[in-house]
Amino acid sequence: MEPVREVTVNELQYQGRKASRAKSEQRRRLILEATMRIIVRDGVRGVRHRAIASEASVPLAATTYYFKDIRELIADAFTLYTEWALAYVSRFTEEFESILPQLHQMDLSVAGEQERAVQFLADELSRYCEGKLATDLTMLISEQAFRYEACIDERVKQLAQMHREALFDIVSQFLTALGSDAAAEDTDIVMALLQSLEYQMLLDGDNAEGVVRIQRVLVRFVRLLMPRLKPSNTVL
Prior knowledge:
Layout: H1 22-42, H2 49-56, H3 60-66, H4 70-104, H5 111-135, H6 137-152, H7 154-177, H8 183-204, H9 208-225
Helix pairs in contact: 1-2, 1-4, 1-6, 2-3, 4-6, 4-7, 5-6, 5-8, 5-9, 6-7, 7-8, 8-9
């Protein structure tokens, strides 16, 4: 599997006033983290200077010192979200690279092995989705707000494209390594499906029936995908 070009934090450009000292940078980051918590809890409409100052436990003047207006503050908060999301993508890469050797050992031309591979892949995808819900609920909710903001703010749209391209590259190379003969198209389908399921999980909450339904959907999808994979083309 070819190494994926990692999008680095250095490529992210914050727009607010730059901090010259470590203590100032810490305060600036506290403000951005507080902004993300407010977005998750109250939505973008809840982002106000006074609310942020209270949430971050900083003077009100600090929010206007680092950010000229609310739009700049919101854009930089989503830049911070992108930083978090890219770190999550990096962990995602490591997890899926680790399961490739197990899949490579399965003979997908044999019905029994193919079904075992289907269940294995569906279980891994389900674990990924459920893991985000259990440990990264804030990330999931932030992602929904991020997508909406990308539709109305050009700068946030660029961040969204950066995040999507990084994830697309990883999924595409994973599917190529499995032998997909149309990795780009299959990647679009996988990403659309996962986004839909993650949104459904947010709506379902801790509903056990919802988790079972999602697992069935993933098994069904992998079964449909499996005939497109060509084991002889698999490259690790």
